[in-house]
Specification:
Blueprint (H helix, E strand, L loop, with lengths): L4 E2 L19 E7 L7 E5 L2 H8 L17 E8 L4 H12 L16 H13 L10 E4 L2 H9 L9 E4 L4 H4 L19 H17 L9 E3 L5 E3 H15 L27 E3 L8 H4 L14 E3 H11 L10 E3 L6 E3 H13 L1
């Protein structure tokens, strides 16, 4: 099969599957190769290895994917989560849409691949996940066609791709991580994942809200936010601005373009997503726009996030989607900036 291509009219940028700590983190959908309505949804740090486990080629497959459904094939993978807990919450909600308070608006859940893709389409448009720089990668072209025919495209900053998964995409960029050597993906306390979906509903009911509905507000962009959605977004923003991960690697050569303070070693920073100018004559000619010199903007992660949110009039949010570069004014996706930090970490 040829190299993965993008479908739909979206910005041509391939966001990596790399998270804040440099690892691939994704949720996937399996179905038997033989005609069947059975499906399986899981989380993995290596989908190629995980599929082999489910098919019994190596140890570590789940009980629900025993020999009765083998061989399994992977229909789709959603990746780009900032950490494993965020991905595992996404996995749990995808597996249990009727129990998730974030998916109350999903009336019915059909069986089979189409039903699971309908839930996925709703999830990508839900405020909890709609601002993350996620990629929906369809290995099966039929699944990709089914998804697009639903008429519920994800936000424009998200990427839709199809084709075989590249080992380069999955390769961990953190040399200190042993995720590629583990026999299973993660063993976590499910209570940690249910706290947002179930405990908040009960707390709301106890506080006098008879319906158990969450307190909600709207951002300037019109998105309806629950208090829990806002807290989750703040946690993700803090993850990106934390003193670890790809954004904290390398040494900044410029002061922060926003606060004008020197970026200390170990502080997370981002640089402009403008591609290098290949024409040296134009680069030194003072031309503007696409022919301008390489932009040298560097800024603290938190400073740049606040600047982009302010420019897009979304001060109530914590995680930006896009915004202009404070120096060259080029429009940048937040996912592009994180991708640049991940590339810097891998070099």
């Amino acid at each position: 099969m040829s190299q993965p291509n993008r479908i739909g009219k979206r910005r041509k940028v391939a966001l990596p599957g790399i998270s804040r700590d440099g690892c691939f983190k994704g949720c996937y959908l399996l179905t038997p190769e033989k005609p069947s309505t059975r499906t399986y949804i899981g989380y993995t740090v290596n989908p190629l290895r995980r599929l082999r486990q489910h098919n019994g080629l190596i140890k570590g497959g789940a009980k629900k994917t025993d020999s009765a459904g083998r061989p399994w094939k992977m229909e789709a993978v959603v990746y780009g989560f900032p950490n494993n807990i965020s991905a595992l919450r996404f996995e749990w909600a995808w597996q249990n849409p009727k129990r998730s308070t974030r998916l109350r608006h999903v009336d019915t859940v059909k069986r089979g691949v189409r039903g699971q893709l309908e839930v996925l389409a709703e999830m990508l448009r839900t405020p909890t996940w709609s601002r993350l720089p996620l990629t929906a990668h369809f290995i099966n072209r039929k699944a990709a066609d089914t998804f697009t025919q639903l008429g519920k495209p994800p936000p424009e900053h998200m990427c839709i791709r199809f084709g075989e998964l590249s080992p380069t995409l999955i390769r961990c960029a953190n040399p200190m991580c042993d995720c590629s050597d583990t026999s299973s993906d993660w063993d976590v306390n499910l209570d940690e994942l249910l706290v947002d979906d179930e405990v908040n509903a009960s707390q709301a009911a106890q506080s006098g809200n008879e319906s158990g509905a969450e307190t909600r507000r709207r951002s300037p962009s019109g998105d309806e936010l629950s208090a829990d959605d806002s807290d989750e977004e703040a946690r993700v923003a803090d993850e990106w601005a934390g003193g670890a991960g790809p954004a904290a690697t390398g040494t900044a050569t410029e002061d922060c373009a926003i606060c004008y303070v020197k970026i200390a070693p170990g502080q997370p920073w981002l640089c402009c997503a403008r591609p290098p100018c290949r024409n040296k004559q134009r680069a030194g000619s003072g031309l503007s726009g696409s022919a301008a010199v390489d932009c040298k903007m560097q800024a603290h992660v938190r400073c740049l996030a606040e600047f982009m949110l302010s420019e897009s009039q979304e001060d109530e949010r914590c995680l930006p989607i896009s915004g202009p570069c404070p120096m060259c004014e080029r429009s940048m996706l937040w996912g592009e900036l994180i991708a640049g930090a991940a590339k810097r970490s891998a070099e």
